[in-house]
Every structure is written in C-alpha cells, then in structure tokens.
C-alpha cells in the first residue's frame, strides 16, 4: 500500500496501430482519476503511453493517438505494463513486424505487474508469459486463444484474472474493472471508490462475474416464437411464470414448451425465470435502498426467504453482501422508483 510520501508508480500503457481505443483510454482514465483522489502529496501514478516504434498510432475506429513513446524510451523504473487489445490485423502485425514480444520477454521479469486488456492477452501469450496460467480475453476470442496456446487455462467467463505478476481482462470495459482493482490494491478502497463514483463504475465487481448477461444470451438465441415471451420475462419477472402459464401463453403443451425452451435458450424455463428474477433483484440492490422484502416482491420472489435462497445459490453471496459491494449510497428511491 502506498504512503503519503511514496513516489508515483509508473504505468506504461502500450498500444499499436489497430488498437481498440477504449482499451487504452479507459485504463488511462482510471489511473488519472486515482491521482485526483489520492491523499498523498505526490500523484499516485505517472502514466506513459507507448507503442512499438513511438509516434502516432491509429485505432481500429480511426482515432489517432499522438506522441506515444517508443519502447526503447520507457524508463527502467516501470511498475506496471498494460497491453491494449485491438483488431486481428493489428495484433498480427504487432506479433510479426515488431520487436514488442522480445522486449516484453526481457522487461516482464523486472516489472511488478504485467497486464492485458481484451485481446491484448494474445500479445502476452505470444511472448510466452501466460504459459500454464489462467487467463481471460474477449468472449469471442476465448476459443481461438485456447486453440493457439493449449497450455493456457482460458477462463471463458471471468471478467479478469489475477495470477501475479500477470493480470488479464476480458472484453473492452472489463479493463476498467481490472485497473480499478489495481488502484484499490495500491491506494486503498477509499481511493478506488472515488474513482468508481467519478466514472460510474461498479466498485469491486468480482473477476468471476460473467462477461455478458443471461438476457443478452437468451435474446440472441430465442426464435420468433419464443422471443416475445423471453422479452416479457426479462421486462417483468413478477407474476405467474409457471410452466403451465407460460406454455398456455404460447399455445403449446407443457412438454413441448419445456423441450423447445431448453433447445433454444439452453436451460429450463424454471431456471431462466429464477435467473431473471435474480438479475432484477441485483439491479434493485445496486440502485436502491429499499428493504429486502420489497426487493423480493418487486423481483417476483414469493418471499424474502425465497430471494435469499435463490440469490445465494445463483450468485454465491447473500443479497446483503451483494448490496454492500455494489449498492448505492445515495438517497432511497420512493415507493414508485
């Protein structure tokens, strides 16, 4: 943990032509905001932007980032290296046409932390730094990373992994979660909380949380016949969502309904409804100070005991613990909020 007289920690954010701009700018904002909240007399961080050869780099969306340092100009006293992700073409070019991999292999043992955002994990993997370790990357690239480097334990669900000195994060905005966790480790929870509030981020979103929600998966998978029902459940998970009621709503037999639902959505209707209700409860726990009994009612649970039991089973923590990590400290919502 830093003290009020500690020297700034030097963070090098490394990009390249074809980067995903948020992979670079997001972490930069987190560390910059940390400087404004750190009570120390000196800034907590000194943030440097670098690229293999220095100068301007252009993101895959056309954003030009000017004046990056070449790798050879980075100081010896680096605390943390963070590799941005980007387009497949950009990543291939970095691996094939620059000496970034050799530089990483030489510098990594002398740096306290080496991290990647999104598909930046491919750069760390190509440098041999993730061998035998657990790693995360964007959900769409997990299978490719695993196929290319079978000795890496690719975690398809994690938003970030921490196996010091190596850290990897999943898709795009999860780099913010990882960097926020690094700030908390360096500067304490009060500084991290200030950053989270400024950037409207979750505080301490666990690295084990899934990259994308049940809602997105279900809406992408549902046929035109089931899609309206899925949307209705997600929009309002209260009321009678028993199998007989839902089957009757679609004019199907219960057996046919359960079979079709399972084939398309990948789980039983009952479990899907439970997850939808848990997701609604999570939102209310994050955004209101309502009593748990009211949250249970507004989420479709028959009782507070039912909320507690299902929430613990599906989320792994109690509603009270979840609220303590992610809940608002603002005013309570009114009765209709």
Shape, per Cα inertia axes: globular
Q: What's the multimeric state? A: single chain
Approximate helicity band:
40-55%
Strand runs, count? 10
In whole angstroms, how far apart are the ends?
Answer: 40 Å
Please state how the strands of the largest beta sheet are arranged side by side: 3-4-2-1-5-6-10-9
Major sheet characteristics = 8 strands, mixed
State Rg: 23 Å
Low-confidence stretches: 329-337
SSE order:
EHEEEEHHEHEHEEEHHHHHHHHHH
Compute the average pLDDT. 87
Number of helical elements: 15
Classify the secondary structure makeup into a structural class.
alpha/beta
Strand content: 5-15%
What does this structure look like?
The chain is α/β, with parallel strands linked by helices. It is 46% helix and 14% strand. It has 15 helices and ten strands. The chain has helices at 21-37, 88-97, 100-107, 121-126, 142-148, 174-187, 189-199, 214-221, 227-235, 243-250, 254-265, 269-287, 292-298, 304-315, 319-326; strands spanning 9-14, 45-51, 53-58, 64-70, 80-83, 113-116, 134-135, 153-154, 160-163, 166-169. An eight-stranded mixed beta sheet has the order 3-4-2-1-5-6-10-9. The chain has a two-stranded parallel ribbon with strand order 7-8. Strand 1 (9-14), helix 1 (21-37) and strand 2 form a beta-alpha-beta unit. Helix 1 crosses helix 7 (189-199) and helix 10 crosses helix 11. The longest helix has 19 residues, at 269-287. The model is unreliable at 329-337 (pLDDT under 50).
């Amino acid at each position: 943990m830093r003290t009020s007289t500690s020297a700034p920690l030097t963070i090098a954010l490394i990009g390249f032509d074809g980067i995903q701009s948020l992979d670079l700018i997001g972490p930069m904002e987190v560390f910059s905001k940390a400087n404004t909240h750190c009570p120390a007399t000196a800034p907590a961080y000194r943030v440097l932007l670098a690229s293999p050869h220095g100068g301007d780099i252009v993101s895959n969306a056309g954003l030009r980032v000017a004046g990056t340092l070449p790798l050879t100009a980075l100081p010896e006293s680096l605390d943390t290296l963070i590799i941005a992700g980007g387009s497949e073409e950009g990543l291939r070019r970095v691996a094939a046409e620059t000496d970034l991999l050799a530089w990483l292999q030489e510098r990594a043992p002398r740096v306290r932390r080496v991290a990647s955002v999104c598909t930046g994990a491919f750069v760390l993997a190509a440098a041999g730094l993730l061998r035998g370790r657990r790693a995360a990357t964007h959900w769409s690239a997990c299978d490719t990373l695993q196929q290319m480097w079978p000795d890496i334990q690719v975690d398809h669900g994690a938003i970030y992994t921490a196996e010091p000195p190596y850290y990897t994060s999943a898709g795009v905005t999860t780099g913010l979660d990882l960097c926020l966790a690094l700030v908390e480790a360096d500067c304490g929870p009060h500084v991290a909380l200030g950053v989270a509030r400024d950037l409207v981020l979750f505080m301490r979103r666990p690295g084990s949380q899934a990259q994308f929600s049940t809602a997105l998966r279900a809406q992408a998978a549902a046929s035109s016949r089931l899609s309206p029902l899925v949307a209705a459940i997600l929009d309002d998970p209260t009321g009678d969502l028993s199998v007989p009621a839902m089957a009757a709503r679609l004019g199907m037999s219960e057996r046919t309904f359960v079979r079709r639902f399972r084939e398309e959505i990948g789980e039983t209707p009952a479990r899907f409804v439970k997850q939808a209700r848990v997701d609604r409860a999570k939102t209310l726990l994050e955004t209101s100070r309502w009593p748990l009994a009211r949250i249970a009612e507004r989420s479709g649970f028959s009782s507070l005991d039912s909320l507690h039991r299902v929430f613990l089973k599906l989320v792994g923590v109690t509603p009270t613990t979840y609220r303590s990590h992610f809940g608002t400290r603002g005013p309570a919502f009114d009765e209709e909020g």
